[in-house]
């Protein structure tokens, strides 16, 4: 289907007859050919104004670079992930959105080479990561064009399943790769994470991103993953505890450089790794009952709580750094406490509030969101960032509130993406005006009731009962298309 035909089938404005008939594949190739020479013809700045020992110049950020930042953040942080979701649900909007996103991405790529003002070292991590990300984008375009051609005869029939898998995996990896590239962009813009700061900077960004990723996964499981979790025959704590144990093993042997003297932070971080893998193993054991059924337990929540307590006690040189780490620790402690409360008292050791997993208690959102907040607070607590904020005149309270605001925005975007998926794969769960959901069983009961009522009515009764039937339908429309039990009862009494 051409782009013109796909868009016209959706039902758009009257200008569509004037849109040229061009396929998505040709559009992608044309855009790539148009923007790539312009981008490649402008290399990075020479860096003659960069002070010795630094990776950025002291020049201000110009408008072109700001446009590049916001455009690429919007494209790779919103449009491409949304296009991925639309591809998963087989939406006809998938191809048009990805074509437009590719055009914006190439435009942003070109603007990143055309800006003036602040100069950057040519070997910065953001520039290095841009090249493989760009080629992955080109590969995704090529794979998409191949699949769009629907070549299924001969050798194409044998390789098409593998092409589909590659296209799917590459597309699902893009949100993660985009997140990493956006972090690299921020690091490069400010010239952070260089020299001796590299180790602690990497630890903060990796661990902070891990907390956010954990929050994203819990959001997915909470909103649409309960039935999948039931099919696995495992409880949520089994997977959480297994990851905690694996991560603890890594921390145990990597936080201290073996063969050197032990310092205070080495002891703390290594001991934290030990408690993670030991508690994780205990959590895996407790995730199964005597009869082999999945069981909930407190272990992951407790591990998160004790981790937050340890992090809040880390000694810091700057007051703003101490307050930020303390806020991070308290937030993580709140994650652990609220997680234990959710499992033990809200769910009472059940997998979900309802059997079908569609009902959600409002308290269940609390530990999930706090994971996002903890991740942003920890990523924003590196040594260089703390020095930068302290020199800007901003106080710790304002900085912490900004981190919480970012957490709310990412939390909102993730829920919006999940909602798009949920509404597509669960079309029967239509939300009524009064906030209640109408299930498939309720729909069938309503249809059967209407059929039975119509069969009981005679031609002589039609005139007398026309008003009653109109009222029945009206009340059903007010409750998302089906009558209330009281209305059905009144009609049955009259017909009896």
Automatic annotation (TrEMBL):
Membrane spanning residue stretches: 65-88, 95-112, 132-151, 172-192, 204-225, 298-315, 327-347, 359-378, 398-421
Protein name per UniProt: Uncharacterized protein
PANTHER family listed in its UniProt record: INTEGRAL MEMBRANE PROTEIN (AFU_ORTHOLOGUE AFUA_6G12730)-RELATED, PROTEIN YTP1
UniProt keyword list: Membrane, Transmembrane, Transmembrane helix
Keyword Cytoplasm: no
Span of domain DUF2427: 50-150
A Pfam family that the UniProt record links to this protein: DUF2427
